[in-house]
């Protein structure tokens, strides 16, 4: 389904079908569809993508960081592949605040280059043209060789800030839950009891569908705020 079809169905469900004077504008409706996309992507841990970032010798650590793809909403894992050789690495997660608390010297550039153990999500949100807050990523120390970082992540199902011509990158069976979610949000200022009905319907239906697609969905994920302390 196109986003325009999801919104049309949500208007029918919420009795907001007066095209001359609707309660909800198209822009507001597409905002809620984007919100649904992020919510259900995190719930399903799907769809996936790999964001590839190049690190030169000396890149990484607290001195440099790189923008992540703006549509990645959660991280499943991060690996580093060398430009040459076979020293492949699987990095574990830490936030910038935890690095400061557990290894304050990580900001000391005089320590020199080496092999990273962690990927570090910076606390500051990068300013970007994307409608989704963009995060920056680095390693716990500057690299002693050029490497390629591969971020295995969960992405928003459609470009955030999308219009009616976009279609969610989800199995078609899930698209109708977008109408339930959008109708729920559209009804909150008008009829809270009916809004609650569609909230419950959305939660129930996404749970049912997830069980049917369980074989395609990975239950193991690490979101930005999950940190492994060693």
Task: Spell out the blueprint of helices and strands.
Blueprint: H1 3-13, H2 26-44, E1 48-55, E2 66-67, E3 72-82, E4 89-95, H3 96-102, E5 118-121, E6 136-139, E7 147-155, H4 172-187, H5 192-212
Shape descriptor reads elongated
Give Rg in angstroms: 21 Å
How widely separated are the two ends? 46 Å
Query: What amount of the residues lies in strands?
Result: 15-25%
Structural class: alpha+beta
Characterise this structure:
32% of the residues lie in helices and 20% in strands. It is of the alpha+beta class. The chain has a 7-stranded mixed beta sheet. Strand 4 (89-95), helix 3 (96-102) and strand 5 form a beta-alpha-beta unit.
Summary of the model, kept short:
With 230 residues, the protein is of the alpha+beta class. Strand 3 and strand 4 form a beta hairpin.
Key structural traits:
230 residues, alpha+beta, seven-stranded mixed sheet, 20% strand, disordered C terminus
